[in-house]
Structures
1.
Amino acid sequence: MSKLLLVALLGLLLLAGSASPANPPQRIISLSATATESLFAIGAGKQVIAVDDQSDYPANAPKTKLSGYTPNVEAIAGYKPDLVVLAYDPSGLSSTLRGLGIRVLVQDAAKTLNEAYAQIVQLGSVTGHVGAARALVARMKQRIGQLVATGTRRARGLSVYHELEPDLYSATSKTFIGQIYSLFGLKNIADAADTDSSGYPKLSAEYVVAQSPDIIVLADIRCCGQGPRTVAGRAGWKNVSAVKTGTIVRIDDSIASRWGPRIVNFVRAVSAALAHLRR
Amino acid sequence: MSQRLWLLAATGFLVVALLVGALVGPVHIGLVDALESMIARLPFVHMDSPLSPTQESILWDIRLPRVVLGALVGSMLAVAGASYQGVFRNPLADPYLLGVAAGAGLGATIAVVYLPNGFGFQNALPPAAFLGASLAVVLAYAIGRSAGRGSGGATLVLAGVTVASFFTAVQTFVQQEHSDTLQEVYSWILGRLPSSGWNDVEILLPYVAVAVVGILLHRRLLDVLSVGDEEAATLGVHVGQVRLVVVVCATVGTAAAVAVSGLIGFVGIIVPHAIRLVAGPSYRLLLPLSVLVGAGFLVLADVIARTALSPAELPIGVVTAFFGAPFFAVVLRTSRRMAA
């Protein structure tokens, strides 16, 4: 009980402290492609002075050579930022930056939709756009809710295979992306293979073909040039249900690997595939 | 045991491995049904396969080509390792000694990173890896030769190490510049037998056939070479020429295998040494045995890769090292005891 109270108190304190920042940051660096998308979606884009080499959306984001995976503190500090947003905090990067007097916000990969929403709101309150952030989250919730409501009826009894790589790496229901399929009530064929509980098992080709998933979602179209035609041409795949019905969804790799505002696009693509199947 | 008996035993091992490979997998296909399906495909047999269309494609389009591919890659790596150990008189030589792995890695990375998507990296990766591997070995050979003839194999090995570290550095640099492609390159480096149907088998078969025949034709000369360069020369053997031909065969075959399967370690060292320990060091016997046992070993390793975490898969390179090392330790112990 006391623990709950403490958490609530802390939450209130955080809210109070961040709801109306006295002077919101004006020189933001985002080393997280997801945060970049969110910052621009809530209207904080004008405050962003540099984004990392992976931040390819939106197109007007000030993309630089800065790397989020192998970050260089000097290069980051050279921009004289007043806020740095990270999705990955290797070898004490955040503490080094804080030591230089730079504010740092670390937003790890979200594990649930609610975490993704919370990160958007947090970005809003830190940058002085909390109203826009809350409105964005509300819109996302509403759209996803609608798409899922119509999709769930169609998804009954169907299975899905989500492909991260042509080597048959997939994502289970435990992963962020896998939860979207769970929302629809789709059966994820990768779940049975999660023996190392990493959430990202490499499936055997025999297994995928034997499971004959109703929907195949390709998240490796950009990296690896996959598409309905290459999948249909794979040895032994011609009898797979999704290949026969042509229910192969192409989803931009970057949408499927981020947890920002474009989750809605992903949910819409799944919903469209379901509509296609039940037509 | 006589030579013939050893060859018979090794052939038996390979046949058993092929059968296990064909019959065991993450999807269960009954022994009798699978055999009937195979018999039904024989010419002049009028019989219907008892398998469903899905089972048919799993057996014929996915599992069997992979088994055959494993056999080809395994035999190539084992015989290449054995011949490198022979021509360089270095027990630790493996097929990747002269920079094949690093060169193939660089070629593969460049294909993944720089080739436009429409090109299809799936198609571009093997030839690029092959080119990189060949380039690395040619460079190593050129550097080794220019360093001096007297010292023979040792300078060549050093040149190989030099080229390999340089190529690895370039590869890592390109990879860091394009971290979004890291995962693909990484999964290739870990080594995997692709489930890509008979296509890869058709590509690989001619290379392996030529390389293996070329190496086997030199098996007696490798025995002569084992007494030392100068001694072999006094016996009338063109040492440099033999070395060149064998290295070219082993390299071309290995490069082709690596291009298809990525880097599968340990096979090229463990199989020849295990054979040496039980059947003796003569290359006349060692080389053909390496072909047979290497093929069987990799097929069995792939069975484990496919089934240990079923329906997930393990990278086969992990399996060859994990099961290969203890196996080798046992062979080492028993052979000592037999000798004692």
Note: Residues 12-19 of chain A have pLDDT under 50 and may be disordered.
2.
Amino acid sequence: MLILKAVSLKPLHGYGVLLRIQHISGNVLEIPQGSLYPALYRLEHQGLIIAEWGQSENNRRAKFYSLTAEGRRRLREETAGWNRLASAIAAALSTTSEEV
Amino acid sequence: MFPRICSLFRALTWRRDFEEDMNEELRFHIEQHTEELMRSGMSREEAGRRARIEFGGLTSVAEECREARGLYLFDQLERNLRYAGRLLRKSPAFTATALLTIALCLGANLTIFAVIDAILLRPLPFPDAARLVTIFNTYPKAGVERDGASITNYYERRGRIPAFSSLSIYAFGTAIVGEPGSMERVPITRISPDFFTTLGAGPAFGRTFTDAEMTYQTDDVAILSGAYWRQHLNADPHVIGRKVQVNGHARTVVGVLPSSFHFLSSDSQLYLPLASSPEQRSPLERHSGGNVTQMIARLRPEATIEQAQAEIDAQNTALEKSDPQAKEMAAAGFRSLVVPLHADEVAAVRPTLLLLQAGVFLLLLIGMVNLVNLLLIRASARSKETAVRQALGASRRFIVSEVVVETTLLTLTGGLLGLAIGAGGIRLVAALGADRLPFGARIAFDARVAGVALAAAVVLGFLLAAPIAWFNLRLRPNDALHSEVRGATAGRGVQILRHSFVIAQIALAFMLLDGAGMLGLSLKRAMAVSPGFRPDHVITAQISLVGNNYPSPAAGLAFAERLEAGLGSQPGVSSVGVATNIPFSGRNGKSAATVEEYVLRPGESPRGHYSYGVGGDFFRAMGFSLRAGRFLTSADSRSKARYCVVDEDFARYYWPHTNPLGHRLFQGSEPGPAAEAFTVVGVVGSIKQAGLTDNSAQGAIYYPYIDHADSNIYVVVRGSARAGALGRMLQKTAREIDPELAINDVQSMDGRIEDSLMARRSPALLGGIFSAIALLLIAVGTYGVLSYSVAQRRREIGVRMALGARPGQIRGQFLTLALRLLAGGAALGLIGAWMTGQAMQAVLFHVPSHSWMILAASASIIGVVSLAACLLPALQAARISPMQVLADQ
């Protein structure tokens, strides 16, 4: 989900995805670098993201990932699902003894 | 799913690109990270090292990426394939045996399946063909099982049976077409206007017939088949309105059918209106179908056959109230049956085809059992290797997939070889007469059949893999490693399994041999039946007397007499005759007759008898035997008095206790005026009318040609000259008299009888071929198992011989084992053969369902083959040298 979110903002190469996730999560989440690529390949295989070769900031050939329509829909669904889950858990945790 | 398959496909086809891209991408990542670390103040080497550490193992990441793309399975498959290929190449004898087994078994199955597919499975080439039915009248108690449907039936039923959306009638026939000088006889079909509507397929252009064209005055129209239009009218697009000459009359072309139009097995060139007169449509003609006119109908989408049958029955009952013949018809067991058109067309060949498929499936079973056994032996020999690999951590999935890949590689390769064998086999069965079966022309080696065969090969691969995988997984590494070291014998379970497979194989082969034996014996018994006349040295041909030269039976008679005179004077010809039909012609030719003063018993109805109009010296030419009185002669066709000859069956039925000579009878199902009576002047021996295995004593009547005339006549010539010479002589003489005549179907009488046995000979021959293959397979199978058994017990044998066992004892031990397997197989096979016999009763002729003679013969053949196969390994066992075995340890 985080990867989808990361590439949803603008096309990114693998390293960019890593930085972006660290950035948007406020350096809380750190992904093991090696496991990023299998995940990217899996998402690409599922048709959620699409890869294109392009120029990186320092003019190197790099593979940029962007979201497909299918991926966009999946991101929406997962975000909604996550929000529901999170608010349910939050509600559960904030329950006080009187309410039971 | 789709994008995944696309992405996997891209990755597979651009494998090199995929790898390069992936490596570049991963390298890029590490370099980026390195640069960033350097920016935070690290040295280049240190930064590079840290980047690589943080990234993790490059190779394992790459492997995970490949796996994410689904490539992993293919990599494994490729490795397995290469491994399996290497293994198979390393043991060429095994591989060749296995491939040959699979190829033979699959090829034989493919052949028979192609026939079954074409004849039984493939639907008729019409939309919603399952809704097409045929309706025919049957009079079982009068000995007439099938009498088609009459024109009256058609006009009475049309539009009045709610279960049918459309109903029509047709009659197959032949006609002479073309201008004088280039006339030829072609098959035609006469049809009612709704024929094409019923089938759901009609003319490519032009129109169908109209109701107005169904009378004799207005029926001068024709619809052409696609083939006729192309071959004879140069595919003229403006053919509508042109004239074609049919039987000497001009008819206007009103439509052309597409080339794809095929009705049942007919190859009709022309379709003509089935014209009739008001008399032919009257209730008096209701029962005169004569199996010439046939009815087809299409069920409404919601209607069932049962519903249609009920409606037909109800209508018959209602009509019979006013039917003068109702009582006789009820006594004859009259009913009109509604049956699916396709099933009806193939009903006669279905049991034989299914039997052959069962036989060939048995063969496949034998082959597969054989292969499993050989594979098990191989797996046992490799059990140490498998055990080591399992001990080293090979997963169960890996072990199974390896086996599956190997067996599937075997069966698929064998299947490809089998395709070649099947293609040859299809040609063989066509030559054996399969192409003359209904829909036989559809039998072909095509993509559909090949696809089924290859799919079957894959399924077989998986089935074969199952016991081997089970064996491999069951191996406990510890035991397997030990058993090799200590020289113990193999696991008992596997040994029992192997032996039971041999027993099963022998039992299956037993069933196959027994079945084939019964078919063979049945053929032999059928061939031994005397046709009741002397068919040797007889040539027959069919001539159609149509056109302006033959307006009346008298003109036909005149032609016949000139022909007899012309042929009779030729050297080498002893007698010549003509008749409206001959035995074994494939025509039915039954019609009703009424014996004067014969009172029907309660429940008895007028019977249909084989009826012939004969001229010239027909009886001598055919070699009939005279029992009483005299034969008919040419003079009887001219005399005013009417005479006839009957056969023994007829005489015995009507005059069991009196002399038949002098009695009188009438044509038709009712007595006529005295002037139309025929006096019986002779009795001839009964003959087989349609086939040697007929056992209906239906009776036959021979009238003078002039009184039972037909425009189709058969010429019968007996002579000492060779068959070919007689045939040429016949054609030449007929052409000299009338060059425009079409002469067809020139064949010796022996040949006609041979052909009538095709339905028995071909299955017997195929059964023989299958049995031979089965014997070969069991020989290979028993040899394989026994010789493995010997090899495995070399140490034991060596030790025993060192301790003083004689070679004879060792030999005896293995022969006893072989005998035990054989006895087990024979016992099981006996049960199987008994069931086979029961199932085969329908196709057997004068052979009991369990003939001890055939059983004993099958047992001894199998015994000899499998014992011979055992002898070699047993002798090898006896020659084992103790010194060498112990030295091997």
Note: The longest helix of chain A spans residues 69-93.
